[in-house]
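Data availability (excerpt). The following record was deposited with the supplementary files.
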Amino acid sequence: MTEMTPRQRVLAAVNRQEPDRTPKTASFTPAIMERFRRETGAQSPTEYFGMEPRGIGFVRTQAKTDFRRFFPKELPANATFDEYGRTRVPGTYYHFTKVEYPMAEFTKVSQLESYPWPDMEADYRHAHLEDGVKRLRDAGYFVHGGVAHIFEIAWQLRGMDRLFMDFGENPDFAAFLLDRITSHRRFMAVRYAQAGCDMIHCGDDVGMQDRMMMSPAMWRQWFKPRWKQVWDAAREVNPDIHIFYHSDGYIEPIIGELIEIGLTVLNPVQPECMDPAKLKAQYGDRLAFWGTIGTQTTMPFGSPEEVRETIRQRIETVGKGGGLLLAPTHVLEPEVPWENILAFFDAIEKHGKH
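Predicted structure:
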């Protein structure tokens, strides 16, 4: 088979065609990034390991907002806030943090109306996208734009228990909150499509280890129509744009409905929770799979030989006929041995050629 460019390789995979070799990617936590630099002397894992996809995003907001005023208690001096006011207090173990909720005490829609929401549409935040996508495309790369979340932003502002209570007891409040967040996701998706991105990258963690975090009926009521709005808006600009949806855990009950509203790429297909080969057999004619290599099992606790064998199995099953981009199912945490990271990339090189 003729050597493909990185973009051609990923496009073949997400179009459920067989590429010249299986594409791959991985994300590193700060501790693993330090190990990478120490071991290789390089600065970019993406370049060093030849990862094919490239991401592009909106510029961070220039607004300076005092979100501390929304908390009845004093927060530690090292608390950090994102543009929504999602608040994190550093923990004592590596990069892990504690989440605090600026909307925890809200009771009325009027409080949401007066909240300092980020200005997603400011020109300085997205005017660079066309040039950035062109530069990456000209270099031969597959380009995706990150739209982020709806459910995860909402619960990290409100608190998960309060948000679930709002669904039953304060539905107008919940609807306003989700609709405001959805309007931002929709604008971002449209801009990525206009700029020429190959794929919209989004998702919400709605799965646990062996069941969903909410009933399929609740997901169907509150989130399915909102994600459909986002994806439909992008497809109005570019009908061929791919839709990538991430959820950790078990989400089998809603996969068919995600496909129904436009999903083309499922991530991360966590093998501790769902069988990737089974899903390939069930949905492989409509869906590509991005991930499948366990970060609860194989990457941290397997031997290098087990990592290689898992890669071989995934390529032979999920990758058969195309439709697979290999990746760990989440960021590589500090306990992942360096030897396993090398085995991951080495095995793809060895077994991934078609």
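Summary of structural features: The mean pLDDT is 97.
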